[in-house]
Amino acid sequence: MANEQTLERIEAKTYRVQGLTCANCAAKFERNVKALPGVKEAKVNFGAAKLTVWGEATVEELEQAGAFERLKIREARERTIQREPFWKKKENQNVLVSAVLLLIGIVADAADSAGMAVAMYLAAIALGGYSLFWTGLRNLARWQLDMNTLMTIAILGAAAIGEWQEGAVVVILFAISEALERYSMDRARRSIASLLEMAPAQATIRRGAEEVTVPVEDVRLGEVMIVKPGAKIPLDGVVVNGASTVNEAAMTGESMPAEKTVGDAVFAGTLNGEGFLEVQVTKRADETMLAKMIDLVEEAQAERAPSQAFIDRFARYYTPFIMIVALLIAVIPPLVVGGNWLDWVYRGLAVLVIGCPCALVISTPVAIVTALGHAARRGVLIKGGRYLEQIGRLRAVAFDKTGTLTEGKPSVTDVVVYDGRRERLLAVAAAIEKRSQHPLASAIVRLVEEDREPFFDVPVDEFQSLTGQGVRAVVGNETYYIGRPSLLAEVLGRLPDEAEQRIATFRQEGKTVMAIGTARRLLGLIAAADRPRPSAAATVAALRRLGVKEIAMVTGDHKQTAQAIGRQAGVSAICAGLLPEQKLAAIRELKQRYGITAMVGDGVNDAPALAAADIGVAMGGAGTDAALETADVVLMADDLRQLPYTVRLGRRTLAIIKQNIAFALGLKALALIAAIPGWLTLWLAVFADMGATLLVTFNSMRLLRVKEEGDGQ
Prior knowledge:
- By secondary structure, the chain is of the alpha+beta class.
- The chain has 26 helices and 26 strands.
- The strands form five sheets. It has a seven-stranded mixed beta sheet, sandwiched between helices. A six-stranded antiparallel beta sheet has the order 6-5-7-13-8-11, with no helix packed on it. Strands 16-21-20-19-18-17 form a six-stranded antiparallel beta sheet, with helices on both faces.
- The radius of gyration is 33 Å and the shape is elongated.
């Protein structure tokens, strides 16, 4: 590749490619684009059907570079491309006419009109296979051995030995096979195409006193969008007026709509509910979370999985091997045992046809493309086939605690009242803590708000923060203290024995205790804890059912809290009080003992551990930038239930890749065996090759059925 520093100074342009059906064609197209005069570098992403060009080239020049496959090029920002009906496509019309000519030839053959029959077969071969011949002969001249080369030799060989009907049938079946392959790859790419079309192409913007509708590319940062009920949100932004529910399933996979009000973030491509929203734009069209998702998935599709890299290397040796085997079958029996030349040449040609590596080459990428696209639609971003395969082999998982196994914010768990009514105690506590910034203070306020208890009318004076201890304030004519139990013990002289016992019990359970009282008496105790996510225990259980051998929690929190959360979540090992370097050591130990290990964290302060693990999984929080950058896998909805789904998808993908390879090689092996006694005809060889390709493709489509537990699978 050209010098990376040089390329950084050259503007890169991205295009969508229509008609890209095989990895070999993609590689050839890339070479042709690189050869254009104004192009410094080019990269073709076969899975995403995308071309990136560094340098200057017109669309016409790019299409000329792809003329061997009649590729169509369009700007990446164009949302859709006009699709021709099946019967209008020239290549399909040629196949139909060729089929008619073949039928006429068969009828002429039956009527003993040999000349007419040969003319019809020749016309069918020429019309249906001219592009194949052109490509195959050019590749043969350059000694580029691909399926076009093999098919060209086989068809010309059939014609040379007088098998005109067989040659015509081979041409037509091969053309049908290519059409079906194009359809299959298009279907596999549809998940990305649907992502591209999720966000509206236009936005309604308030400019001055007017509301104008403009393309999203023309919207400036800071402008205010108008989003009407039932409309999709065009760009990322922050709500500045109005309230509504927004269906974010397209981004996160979460089916329940999210409440949105002033100050809340919204994302392009999500669906507004029944409310009217005014949204201040915070991201350009090419910087939205949706755009980042699409880029990540397309980059992931471009990255070769280990299985795919192996198959690509295998195919480089496999194709010449098939040609040598076909030559030996055609030549050795006539020379050694006096076999009939025409008979054995025919068998050699059949071996060439069945030897086409097409089904083998696409056995891995079609499965990877399907799986990555399906995962993205469900709110899981996987950054490459390599990570998808590793997830499929996962043996151990390490969870961070705060914000991963837990909700990431403290909640009140217990309220013990020693004097007065619970409602009055909490109202006074909330009125005082409303003025504090401490997370535990927020937990008390949230509890009272959820209980709909009035506390705003409680008069609070002389509020004072006592550093490291708590707060003091005057309510009515009484001075109240809220904070550590030691603060109340100091004010009162000592706490009652029963209260000390309660405090010790709460601490053993991993809870933080606050005491509330006056200068004369202890009024009560409030215990709070960072609660486990409701889905934590179910997630751990699901991972065990999937065969994950070790599930650990690694946290910097103290041992008592970690043990309490670990017991509730059901993890098998708890490593608490860890510094960042100790977390790294824990991950390395898991890798050494169990093999492929995943680390699940929040994507920010767990970055070293995420990097040390074989697979770093980040809780995405609707796609925080830090999570997208640091992790190999991002759970966009912050939903742990997506993790077992991802492991299940990885396991299923690995199984399907193995099945695909077995199908591709197994069918070819059977056909090769059948070729020796002469049972394999040329047209049957093409049919078997086409069947293997379709079998591989449709088997990969089964990945679209992988779901979360409870989704009906």
